[in-house]
Amino acid sequence: SYYLHAVTEYGYMLVEGLAFKRQSLLCLGKIFNDLGRSPVSVVVDGAELNSKHADLFYANRRTTKDATAAGQQWMNSRVERRHAVINQMTAASLRRAGAVTAFWWFCLHHMVFICNLLLLARDPKTRQALDKTVWEAHFGVRPNLRDYLIAPWGCMCYLVLTPDQRQARGADNAFGIRAIGGIYLGVVCNPR
Question: Is-above-0.70 flag for pTM?
Answer without folding.
Answer: yes
